[in-house]
Design brief:
- The structure is a single chain.
- The protein contains six helices and six strands; from the N terminus they run E-E-E-E-H-E-H-H-E-H-H-H.
- The chain has a single domain, classed as Nucleotidyltransferase, domain 5.
- The chain is about 45% helix and about 20% strand.
- The protein is α/β, with parallel strands linked by helices.
- Helix 1 packs parallel to helix 3.
């Protein structure tokens, strides 16, 4: 995991908004942690971070980049980053390009899934988004930056080569 990026979109459902928090490994392009809920809170972003850490077990010193949302500026979230030995990095004020890798993922999610469906319930949307991330985006969707292979395969190849070295 290298320079993870965080940000969040929201999805309209028949029950109201569904908010997403996610963490992307910029090196492998994998979505390594995500969480969904009825409100965008520091707890939701922390849940995504916990998932990323439990999935990838990054070494201390990792740089964690996010936008300047209040959830990422919250004391509890910053303390969690410290607990995991991560260094916080935030986008410059008013500069969306600093978080472009994560914004690119949210754009792909919306263009390839969200804009083509209406979700009656939050649970329906959550199931579709989880399937998109776990089965399609990380495991099947090819990325030109990775040599036209999916993120999970790129990460697997990287891990195999780094263990052999």
């Amino acid at each position: 995991m290298q320079f993870p990026r965080s940000t969040h979109p929201y999805i309209s459902t028949g029950e109201g908004w569904l908010y997403l928090a996610g963490i992307k490994d910029v090196y492998t392009c994998e979505i390594v942690g995500y969480a969904m809920g009825e409100r965008m809170t520091q707890a939701l972003t922390a849940k995504a971070l916990w998932k990323a850490v439990s999935n990838k077990r990054p070494p201390p010193g990792l740089i964690h980049h996010s936008d300047r949302g209040s959830q990422y500026c919250a004391l509890g979230y910053r303390e969690l980053l410290e607990q995991f030995g991560m260094q916080a990095s935030m986008s410059r004020k008013g500069n969306c390009y600093d978080n472009a890798p994560m914004e690119s993922f949210w754009g792909s999610l919306k263009n390839e899934l969200i804009h083509h469906q209406h979700y009656a319930t939050r649970a329906d949307a959550q199931a579709a988004i989880q399937e998109y991330i776990e089965s399609f985006y990380n495991r099947q969707r090819r990325h030109s930056r990775l040599g036209n292979i999916p993120p999970a395969l790129f990460a697997e190849n990287f891990n195999r080569h780094s263990q052999a070295a």
